[in-house]
Automatic annotation (TrEMBL):
<dbReference type="Pfam" id="PF01695">
    <property type="entry name" value="IstB_IS21"/>
</dbReference>
<dbReference type="GO" id="GO:0006260">
    <property type="term" value="P:DNA replication"/>
</dbReference>
<feature type="domain" description="IstB-like ATP-binding">
    <location>
        <begin position="1"/>
        <end position="80"/>
    </location>
</feature>
<keyword id="KW-0547">Nucleotide-binding</keyword>
<dbReference type="GO" id="GO:0005524">
    <property type="term" value="F:ATP binding"/>
</dbReference>
<dbReference type="InterPro" id="IPR027417">
    <property type="entry name" value="P-loop_NTPase"/>
</dbReference>
<dbReference type="InterPro" id="IPR002611">
    <property type="entry name" value="IstB_ATP-bd"/>
</dbReference>
<protein>
    <submittedName>
        <fullName>ATP-binding protein</fullName>
    </submittedName>
</protein>
<keyword id="KW-0067">ATP-binding</keyword>
Length: 84
């Protein structure tokens, strides 16, 4: 439906203005969190440093309760710091 394409266009436009953007997908975050169990807090902190984090295909994959909780932690942390 063009959502991913539009998100990519927004990311590219911001990066042209030298604004850091991270565009990733839900499954990749779950995989990265599972692979970096001991470093998960640092991984979440890195995701929260970007002025804009774009989560593509959010909710398309079935995650574990733990994985979903960690993704919620990323979203909640960004929300509390006023970042999209």
């Amino acid at each position: 439906t063009g959502k991913s394409y539009l998100a990519g266009c927004i990311a590219n436009a911001l990066m042209e203005k030298e604004i850091p953007v991270r565009m990733t997908n839900f499954a990749l975050i779950l995989n990265d969190l599972a692979a970096s169990f001991e470093g998960r807090n640092e991984y979440i902190s890195r995701l929260c440093r970007y002025p804009l984090l774009i989560l593509d295909d959010f909710g398309m994959e079935r995650g574990t309760e733990y994985g979903l909780e960690q993704v919620f932690n990323v979203i909640d942390s960004r929300y509390r710091s006023g970042k999209p």
